[in-house]
């Protein structure tokens, strides 16, 4: 694997070493086939283990046991559920578009498997005497392949809802399309900052550019926004509105069963593993060990050990999905759209502009004071905007609460608006001889039983 130093205007190295693409495409056919099969098996095992961990961890969060009957400690429960779903009777509704109805689950699952081919899990190692990187392949535009595959996955959801010819499924598919379009833009903008700092679109080059420091540290706003967008892209709580079991019966999967439903379920969890692997690659240093480990142990970056560090980071991001599902309630659809279009995208645009200005000043050799002033100005502007947004949101909440209280008071006092028909205080009692239209109403006669007995 060749290395090339990238320099900027003043001749200083911008990226220490960027691996080239010459290491890919030279492996024997059996090794390429072995890598592809390993990726497929790894994804399938991750799906089974993630479903089991999802139920076990959430069970502990809710002070109950998760699945613990099938297999030791319930480890085979996910496999049993998959076999049960696959063996169920496959019913196809009468009026569906059969071609699209059958193709939709495949279209939803296939792009997620394709994306994992460009994820670097480790550096070059020796496998049966062949020196090869722990990565199936890499491309000059590998990072764009990730975005393209994420955008293709939504077609399976939309087609599944449309081909079912059901209003519930169609509404779930439309929700999914709007949600993915909204959060795809913010996700793509979070990649732009990574491209500016790494000066490459290859996944292996981005990992090598993080050898001094992870991009999650120096590009923390992009990393935080990517974490939000990856949850929205995978339709997980609190953004699982395309399914919305409590309000849409099952969303775009309402008319599906047996193996086709299993494919949609598989696509959701494979997408989770893919976006988690992308977050590790772009922001968490990839297979590089954390700085304390590399300082204390020089051999942490040798051999197969980098694959272990990658796996630990990957498991940490996957746990984030479970933690969010067990702690955060589902948001409303208007809140979902407002977060995507009014918060994430504007913040990313301002952040990208600041990053571009900082990189330009660094490439032109500007003094550190000027660069620091730009960073300070951006920080002050960001804090001021967040404060203004918080005040505006609080004012809207207060106005909404006041309007609701006024409406409730009006409904309580006025029978025309749903209140209980209580007679006014000066209305005559039933049985009184005073007409209702009399301007001055006299109090009714006494009905005290004691007065009747004593004759008082």
UniProtKB/TrEMBL annotation:
One of its GO terms (cellular component) is plasma membrane. It holds the Pfam family NADHdh. It comes from the Bacteria. Residues 399-456 are annotated as: Disordered. InterPro entries: NADH_UbQ_OxRdtase_su1/FPO (IPR001694), NADH_UbQ_OxRdtase_su1_CS (IPR018086). It is an enzyme of class 7 (translocase). This is NADH-quinone oxidoreductase subunit H. PANTHER family: NADH DEHYDROGENASE SUBUNIT 1, NADH-UBIQUINONE OXIDOREDUCTASE CHAIN 1. The gene is nuoH. NDH-1 shuttles electrons from NADH, via FMN and iron-sulfur (Fe-S) centers, to quinones in the respiratory chain. The immediate electron acceptor for the enzyme in this species is believed to be ubiquinone. Couples the redox reaction to proton translocation (for every two electrons transferred, four hydrogen ions are translocated across the cytoplasmic membrane), and thus conserves the redox energy in a proton gradient. This subunit may bind ubiquinone.
């Amino acid at each position: 694997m060749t290395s090339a130093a990238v320099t900027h205007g003043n001749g200083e190295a911008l990226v220490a070493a960027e691996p080239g693409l010459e290491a890919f495409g030279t492996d024997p056919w059996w090794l390429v086939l072995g890598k592809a099969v390993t990726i497929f098996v790894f994804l399938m095992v991750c799906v089974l283990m993630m479903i089991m961990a999802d139920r076990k961890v959430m069970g502990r969060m809710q002070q109950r046991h998760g699945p613990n009957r099938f297999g030791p400690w319930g480890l085979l429960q996910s496999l049993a559920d998959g076999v049960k779903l696959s063996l169920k009777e496959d019913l196809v509704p009468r009026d569906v578009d059969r071609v699209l109805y059958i193709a939709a689950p495949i279209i939803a699952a296939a792009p997620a498997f394709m994306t994992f081919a460009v994820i670097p899990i480790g550096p070059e190692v020796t496998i049966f005497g062949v020196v090869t990187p722990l990565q199936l392949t890499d491309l000059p535009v590998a990072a764009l392949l990730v975005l393209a595959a994420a955008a293709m996955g939504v077609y399976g959801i939309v087609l599944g809802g449309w081909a079912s010819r059901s209003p519930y499924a169609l509404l779930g598919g439309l929700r999914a399309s709007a949600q993915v379009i909204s959060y795809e833009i913010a996700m793509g903008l979070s990649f732009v900052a990574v491209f500016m700092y790494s000066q490459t679109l290859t996944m292996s080059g981005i990992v090598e550019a993080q050898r001094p420091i992870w991009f999650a540290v120096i590009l923390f706003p992009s990393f935080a926004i990517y974490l939000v967008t990856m949850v929205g892209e995978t339709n997980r709580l609190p953004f699982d509105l395309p399914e919305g079991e409590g309000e849409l019966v099952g969303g775009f999967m309402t008319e599906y069963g047996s193996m086709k439903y299993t494919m949609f379920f598989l696509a959701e969890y494979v997408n989770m593993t893919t976006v988690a692997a992308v977050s590790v690659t772009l922001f968490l240093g990839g297979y590089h060990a954390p700085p304390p480990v590399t300082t204390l142990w020089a051999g942490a970056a040798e051999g197969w050990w980098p694959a272990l560090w990658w796996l630990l980071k990957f498991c940490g991001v996957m746990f984030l999905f479970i933690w969010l599902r067990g702690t955060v309630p589902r948001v409303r659809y208007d809140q979902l759209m407002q977060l995507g279009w009014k918060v994430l995208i504007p913040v990313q645009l301002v952040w990208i502009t600041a990053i571009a200005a900082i990189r330009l000043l660094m490439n032109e050799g500007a003094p550190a004071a000027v660069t620091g002033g730009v960073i300070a100005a951006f920080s002050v502007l960001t804090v001021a905007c967040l404060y203004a947004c918080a005040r505006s949101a609080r004012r809207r909440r207060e106005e909404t609460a006041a309007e609701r209280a006024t409406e409730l008071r009006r409904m309580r006092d006025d029978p025309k608006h749903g209140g209980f028909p209580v007679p006014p205080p000066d209305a005559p009692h039933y049985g009184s001889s005073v007409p209702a239209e009399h301007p001055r109403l006299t109090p009714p006669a006494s009905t005290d039983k004691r007065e009747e007995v004593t004759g008082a």
